[in-house]
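Bug report (template v2)

What were you trying to do?
Predict the complex of my protein with 3-methyl-2-oxobutanoic acid.

What happened?
Run completed; filing so the output is reviewed.

Input:
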Amino acid sequence: MKIRTGTLSQLKQRGMKFSCLTSYDALTAGIFDQAGIEVLLVGDSAGNVVLGYDTTVPVTLDQMLHFGRAVKEATSNALVVVDMPFGSYEVSTEQALASAIRIMKETGADAVKLEGSRAEAVKRIVDAGIPVMGHLGFTPQSVNQLSGFKVQGRGDSAAALLEDAKGLEAAGAFALVLEMIPAKLAAEISQELQIPTIGIGAGVGCDGQILVWTDFAGLSDRSPKFAKKYLDLRVQLSEAAAAYIEDVRTESFPGEEHSFN
Ligand code: KIV
């Protein structure tokens, strides 16, 4: 069954949690889609995990179009959301709308996501008929302003975060990612909002959860505290590479079955 933005709000109303993973390529998108993951986010975390950058700041709109198209091509059911990269929506609401239109036209995505308390940009894009997912708490594109990877919304800033969340809902966002905020605050925001929240390092009180797929699969060498490893793919791949090297050296590969007469 095709997941739509409305499906996520129905799941919230019924108290049913949903799962999201990032994906940047057709291969993993097809696997996660067939496994039943409800939302595939083509995150600009591609900058870190695929392109090897230290932050998501250098990621360009053209790069996101490339990743978005690949994921969409391999996905039948999951809702595909493409991140708007840094620099593609902050200048004006016109710029935000133009970037969102390019993403929708050139990738075939179902929705876009942008970071921060940008209700005007969200409203402008939503008014054009494009679903927008918000993203509050730790927003990686602002890592320089936030002085590093730090938990947000502690102490006095909690009330402002709740107000920002309400502002994005009022502007028409269909869902909201909450990243690295205290679990209690995330649960409160999830209860106050009608739209679903999606947590990453935000506790169990959110309506859905998201993980960067390379953290979930144990492929990264520096996973954050909040990520659970469901596989140890880094170790498995490294062992497989060592076995392959040995087979080639000892002429155990290729065998008869891999050769042509
Ligand atoms: O880019 C990304 O992967 C994200 C998730 C961390 C939510 O925005």
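What did the reviewer find?
The longest strand covers residues 132-137. The radius of gyration is 20 Å.
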